[in-house]
Amino acid sequence: MSKKDDSNSYLGIDIGGSSIKLVELANNNGRAQLVTYGYIERSLKEDKVKLIDRPDETAAMIKKVVENSKVLSKKAITALPAPAVYSSIISLPEVKKSDLSSSKKITAAVEWEAKKVLPLPIEEMILDWKVLGSEEILKENEKKETVKNLQVLLTAASKEVIQKYIDIFKKADLELISLETESFAMARALVGKDKSVVLIADIGTIGTDLSIVENTIPMLTRSVAVGGLSLTKIIKDTLAVSMEQAEQFKRDLDATTIKEGQEFPEVLKVPMQAILNEIQYTINFFLEQPENKGKKVEKIILAGGTANLFNLPEYITTELNTRAFIGNPWARVIYPADLQAALESVGTRLTTAIGLAMRDID
User: Fewest CB atoms within 10 A around its CB: which of 118, 199, 250, 340?
Assistant: First the structure.
């Protein structure tokens, strides 16, 4: 691709359990345009300590994928993994309407309520928050001086965890301009401006992250310690092959190799059932909340490298009676038509990185 001004392009860098994914997007009149992408994975034989806990190794891997991808920008955005983020909807008992425009006053009110629910002292955490339905609230309370039970989406992470990311990107010679949650990045890439209630299932190597998104905002997130690696181990034990052979076997049997009417392999139903159970539990939990009465989860969007496995979308659709399909994170990105096939093949793995790179563009 031709070299261009990198002043308005951003690197979305997704640090997974055992891989680094990178996407660079440029701002093309308010639309995201692909500049380059790349990824790097550790061998299954390598140490399984999470990359975030190996700062030197992780920084070196980032440098390598940056070099191989020939990126133009130094401005990076990365994501905190779901287990490292505390997320909750809190209610502010009463707020003056005049205070809604004061970030300082709302922040003070949020911090007061956050102290009651945070798992660590507020001094040890960095908070982010968003008022839910602010425009609708102003209309509903047009003639009132105060707003009662203002709903706020609170996210928080420990300063210690955040410092790990800052140190890694400094070692990688990149400017870390923002940190956000994986769930927001995924929602930005896969949901866009769709306001319906959807569930995103990101089936990664080590685990699966679930997010229920409503009005483009992740309202509920959960994680389950079952992912692609669990499926690989089942194949290894069943076929009596090495982990590398089992992983290759799994990747070879993707959605493009399945014959019409072929069922999801029986041997993989046991580990997959744990994910299905968690998806159903998450949906039920969300719908049981009083404020969600009468709502319905319209669809399940699959992401992560394992999303392409066999006829997984059809299997989930049948088992949970909710339409499931593989998400297309490139839907809102401009890219050369001749790259379409290649991009579709890696799209599910790059979803978080795409959403991160879109943060300051979309």
Answer: 340
Q: What is the DSSP string of 72-122?
A: ---EEEEEE-GGG-EEEEEEEEEEEGGGGG-HHHHHHHHHHHHTTT-SS-G
pLDDT digits (tens, 9 = 90+) for 14-34: 998 778 999 999 999 989 999
d(CA 282, CA 221): 8
> Which tokens belong to 23?
């996407």
Residues 171 and 273 in one domain: no
CA angle 311, 313, 317 (to 5 degrees): 120
Residue in the block written with tokens 């191989």: 68
Provide the number of structural domains found in the chain. 3
Instruction: Determine if the pTM surpasses 0.85.
Output: no
Q: Is residue 225 within 8 Å of 278, Cβ to Cβ?
A: no
pLDDT at 26: 96
> Are residues 279 and 296 located together in one domain of the fold?
yes
CA–CA gap between residue 316 and residue 294 (Å, rounded):
23
pLDDT at 329: 96
